[in-house]
Structures are given as structure tokens and as C-alpha cells.
Amino acid sequence: MAATGHRAAPEHTHPDDVTVANALAALADPVRGTLVRELAGSADWTRTCGSFDVPVGKAALSHHFTVLRAAGLVEQRDEGARRVNRLRRAEFEARFPGLLDLVLRGD
């Protein structure tokens, strides 16, 4: 079977299906913290995966987004050749009230 050039749509975990331990583990990594903070300061669906200022390569960045999706923090969709992101702030806040605000404050 010939490759079509299309990548599979990313799988997402709803925050209701995430444990607090998994959420904390995802947020504890400094690179993922940067991604979440930058998404928090951006409008939904405006940031492509390559637009973040983090000191990791493409494969590592893909892994970090996979972890954030699995923790219910980030939703991604493909728009043409670009993959865009949004922070699932409202959904995550409903599941873990106040946790995201603590992370975003950086205390």
C-alpha cells in the first residue's frame, strides 16, 4: 500500500480520565511547562508545534505534546500541513480546580 502523505490524527484524553498523578507528572517537566505557559498566552488554534521556543528537537517536542495530550492538557488538530494546538483550560480546570493557575503562576 502506498503512503498517502497524511499523518494520523492525534489521540486525545479527556481531563476527566486523567489522574492527578498523571497531570502533575506532565506539568512537572520544564519543557512541557513552557509549552503550557506559551499556549495559555495564545489564542486557541494559533500556535503550530514548531512555533514554541523550547530547546528540544522535533522528535522530543512530539513526545512532549503526546504527554500533554495524554494528560488532558492540550488538544491538537491538523490544518493542512500544520498541526495547531490549544490549551484545554476550561476542561482541565473543571477536573483539577486551581492546578493550572498554580502552574501558570510559576510559584
Report strand order across the widest sheet.
1-3-2
The backbone outline, from C-alpha atoms, is globular
Compute the separation of the termini in Å.
Answer: 52 Å
Name given to the CATH architecture: Orthogonal Bundle
CATH topology description = Arc Repressor Mutant, subunit A
Reading off the top of the CATH hierarchy, the class is best stated as: Mainly Alpha
Description:
- By secondary structure, the chain is α+β, with helices and mostly antiparallel strands.
- It has one domain: Arc Repressor Mutant, subunit A.
- It is built from 5 helices and 3 strands, in the order ααβαββαα.
- A 3-stranded antiparallel beta sheet has the order 1-3-2.
- The longest helix is centred in the middle third of the chain and has 13 residues.
- The radius of gyration is 14 Å and the shape is globular.
- The termini are far apart.
- 21% of the residues are buried.
- The model has no long low-confidence stretch (mean pLDDT 90).
Looking at this protein, list some descriptive labels:
single chain; 107 residues; alpha+beta; Arc Repressor Mutant, subunit A; 3-stranded antiparallel β-sheet
Structural topology:
Layout: H1 20-28, H2 30-40, E1 47-48, H3 58-70, E2 74-79, E3 82-87, H4 89-95, H5 99-105
Brief account:
The protein is α+β, with helices and mostly antiparallel strands and 107 residues long. The chain has helices at 20-28, 30-40, 58-70, 89-95, 99-105; strands spanning 47-48, 74-79, 82-87.
